[in-house]
């Protein structure tokens, strides 16, 4: 075997172990018995240290020196393995272990603090997580920018400065649109009845099929917080049901199907290699968002969903497809990010981005965080934060040391805006298909232009190749202005 072949064979086993670890995580959130939690933490920790040792094995360094890849994909594999090898080596094993242990405990404390609305309970653990994260950032950054070093785990190559520029470009038009919509005379009704769980799950499965999710290589289960898991030939998604809010189920499903289809549609030549996964969290979120919002919440597709909901649940109090379309896109200032409409969503992310930059830079201390959150929230949303659970304690991310992750949600929306504009240009009569739940023209386009490449191209290059234009905020803002201007008559 050549050094390249040895490297790839070794990497394949590492990737396989990584997939197993992911599946343990899936199991934990879906079917694991509650009494197994402590044993599971030990199982995860054991696998984590096996992976850490494999990823820092000195043989990788030797193979990397000698490897001569034959083509561009091979070069990219080597580049990705090299990048990961260097990053893993920079973080001392003891620090890595301390982070794993502390976040595992912090997660439990966060859940309890959220349930009891007690930020003071969480503050000491969050301080520990933050201190370790800053230590890790310093080790990775080697004198450079701390936030860049952390964000690179989720969006390779992105910088704090680029993210800041993105939010600066979005903010004025988002705020202006929000003010127009909130001041509109038009009122959009809410659903005022309940919907059976069986009906929701049956229609949710139909939606997953309509968007091309392959259940030969996947399955749909229930989870408290919907997520997707796995790559290649085993890609699973979850959804949830709420009696009075079937949209939560339907749009969670479509969102996770977007993530799932991205993984399922990657070229199988990349199976169990670094190219066999979505290239970044931003690109991943662009897929879930375009499935959910630009396609799933379009006027055309929602007219079909209106019909199917009527078939499934009978008359549910919404008189016509046009009202139903407005209901699926209803705007309201609310405390909770995961329930936010398209107009408000990125303002939630901007708030988190600014606060976590301040935390990482040492400009903001954990005890002062709730006050900073509440003040910013009130000025951006015109609402007071009533409880920590509706404010600073609502998201799991910081307890898991996911600093640098939040902005990838907005980056995903920006990329989705770019892809949607290009899709509409290339498939002008898309709405005719969507109105009968045929998404294939859109999902084929996304598979061809984005999904099949896996990790082959850098995120920004991938979007530029797909659309013919460098990514920018304009298409998302134009789409939002047009859609919500129309729905709210503003
Ligand atoms: Zn997502």
Question: Can you describe this structure?
Answer:
Helix 9 (197-210) runs parallel beside helix 10. The protein has 20 helices and three strands. The model has no long low-confidence stretch (mean pLDDT 96). It folds into two domains: 3-144, no CATH class; 160-488, Neurolysin, domain 3, CATH 1.10.1370. By secondary structure, the protein is mainly alpha-helical. The chain has helices at residues 3-30, 37-55, 58-66, 72-90, 93-116, 119-141, 146-151, 160-182, 197-210, 246-264, 281-295, 299-313, 321-328, 342-361, 369-381, 407-426, 430-434, 440-449, 459-467, 474-488, and strands at residues 220-222, 228-229, 236-239. Helix content is 64%, strand content 2%. Bound molecules: zinc ion (ZN). Zinc ion binds next to helix 10 and helix 11.
In short:
This protein is mostly helical.
What is the element layout, followed by pairings?
Blueprint: H1 3-30, H2 37-55, H3 58-66, H4 72-90, H5 93-116, H6 119-141, H7 146-151, H8 160-182, H9 197-210, E1 220-222, E2 228-229, E3 236-239, H10 246-264, H11 281-295, H12 299-313, H13 321-328, H14 342-361, H15 369-381, H16 407-426, H17 430-434, H18 440-449, H19 459-467, H20 474-488
Parallel strand pairs: 1-3
Antiparallel strand pairs: 2-3
Bound ligands: zinc ion
**What is the CATH architecture annotation of the largest domain?**
Orthogonal Bundle
Q: Summarize the helix and strand pattern as letters.
A: HHHHHHHHHEEEHHHHHHHHHHH
User: What strand order characterises the main sheet?
Assistant: 1-3-2
> How many separate helices?
20
Classify the beta-strand content into a percent band.
Answer: under 5%
Terminal-residue CA separation: 66 Å
- Name the structural class: mainly alpha
Return residue spans where pLDDT drops below 50 for at least 5 consecutive residues. none
Q: Quick one: biggest sheet?
A: 3 strands, mixed
Mean pLDDT equals: 96
**CATH level 1 class label of the largest domain:** Mainly Alpha
Indicate the percent of residues in helices.
Answer: 55-70%
What name is given to the CATH topology of the largest domain?
Answer: Neurolysin, domain 3
The figure for the number of domains is 2
**Which overall shape is indicated by the principal axes computed on the Cα atoms?**
globular
Rg over CA atoms, rounded to whole Å, is 23 Å
| DSSP strand count | 3
